[in-house]
Structure formats: structure tokens, C-alpha cells
Amino acid sequence: MFEYVAPSSAFAQTSLEAACAHVTDVGAKKIDLWSVQGICDHLPPNEPRVDLRRVRRALDHAGLALHSLSVYFATPEVTLARLEQLAELGGKMLVCNSRTGRGDTPADAVRRCEEFVKRAESLGVTYAVENHDGSAFDSLEQIHEVLAAFPGKSFGVALAPVHCWKRRANTADFIRSLKDRIALYYAWDWGTKAEQDFRDASEQLPGTGILDFPSMFSALRDTEHAAPLCLFAHGLESWQPADAVTAMKRSLQWCREIEKKLLDNGGADIPVCRPCASPGRQE
Q: Is the pLDDT of residue 277 over 50?
């Protein structure tokens, strides 16, 4: 029912080539390549230039297609460069933060995104912004206000259910309201351990936390969501790569089981997935 993307950030402590190979091992056919300072530098976060030949080789060797580039907190120069590189590599979207904080308004988000949305439109790609608590791109009202300023396909929402949960909102309501303006959906769970330490991945992969995936998947199905789902968790980069692959494969299978139940009997008797046991951080 859904297609899945895996982020290179799960394997941030490995090389670009190794990360691509691990994403293939997870079972994904597309990758979200990260270029984020302090988290993942598979593409250099502070350097506009990228060795595109190396990236193409790594993708081709792993049998992967590029779906997206994640460039949170990048400078305008790097962001514009990544949009160009995304198009050259055949990717679909650039994923960013809204560049706003507490006290800012949706109008501030529009102003700070406008240059990038225009460039994305000229390149035929999408500039996607993640909803985030504490930003001006958080509530449904704020998100719709920004979307109204950019009505075309060159701008969309990277919807993170965790941030809906943090504002005590129903993610399924967000999905049904935003519909095809959801450019990327994070298949991302949350639990007590993650609330205490967001880099603890043991309750963040789908099926390991407390979020209601059956209702979210039902809403995605009902709105005919066509964009890939990104299998995501903060902190996997501190696990041994083989352990991260195993946990992501198990979570992906759990998601597939939910899909099957939804198709077969409307979501009754959704299976329970035991939490991933954290093997500890790499030394």
C-alpha cells in the first residue's frame, strides 16, 4: 500500500557508500540523504559543493534511487546549492526546518522560505518543511496559512507525527486536513525513553512506542496518500549498523502487517511489535 524511504542519518557514523548499502539491507529502494550539521554529514553540511559523481556511484552500487535530501539548519547558500544538486541527481524533494522559532509567525515562515520555493518550482522539485513544536509551522492553522502562500506542488509538508503528539493533536486529523500537501510522512514513533532523551532510538521506530499507527495509516489510506513514508528514528546512528538494520527491518515488517490488516479487515487486531532493544552506543 505504501512505499518506504530510509534515511542515511540512521548510519551517520559510516561512509556514504556504507550508508547506502545499509539502506538497501533494510529493504528500501529509495534513500533520504542527510546533510545536517552535528547529525549527519553524508553530504557536507557547510559546503555548497558536492562530489555528485561519488554520490551517483554510491547510489548505483547500492541499487538505490535518491528520493530526498534533508538539509536542516543549512545556510541559504547551501540550501540553494542542494536544490540544484537534488534536481541533478533526480531526487524529488528537499526537506528543511521552517527557519522560525518561538515568537515568529507564519508570515515569517513564508518570507524565509519564499526564495527556496521559487527555486524549487523552477527546478521541478519540492521544498518540504517539517512541522515542529515551538516554530511558526506547528498547528494546523499555522501550516495552512503557509500553504496558502505557496499553493503549487513546489512546497509541501514533511509531516512528523511526533510533533503532532507533542501539541496533543490527533495526527490523523492533520493527515485528513492536509491531504496531498503532505510531501513526506515520517513513520516515526515515540515513547517515554525518547521523551527523556531524544537520541534514545529504542522507542522511536514504528511499533516500538505509543503512537497510534493504525489510525494514522487509515487516514493515509483514506486520503490516497501517494508519497513515500520515511522510516525514521533519532539515535540509530549510535547503534552498530547491523543492529540498526535489524531493528529497521523488523519495524518495516510491522508496518507492512498493519497495511495488510487494513486491507483485509479495516485494521482490526493490529499486531503488537516488541520494542527494539538498544544495543548501546558505538564506541
A: no
| CB of 161 closer than 8 Å to CB of 216 | yes
Neighbours of 42 (CB within 10 A): 27
For the domain made up of 4-265, give the CATH fold. Answer: TIM Barrel (3.20.20)
At residue 136, the pLDDT reads 93
d(CA 102, CA 137): 10
Instruction: Find the helix packing angle between 106-123 and 76-88, rounded to 10°.
Output: 30
For the beta carbon of residue 48, count every other beta carbon within 10 angstroms.
Answer: 15
Separation of alpha carbons 274 and 264, rounded Å: 23
Sort 89 into a burial class: Cβ within 10 Å, 0-12 / 13-18 / 19+. Answer: middle
**CA-to-CA separations, 152 to 80, 88, 143, 245, 272, in angstroms, rounded:** 19, 21, 14, 36, 39
Q: Domain residues of the chain, as ranges?
A: 4-265
Enter the pTM of the model.
0.93
Mean pLDDT, rounded, for 179-199: 96
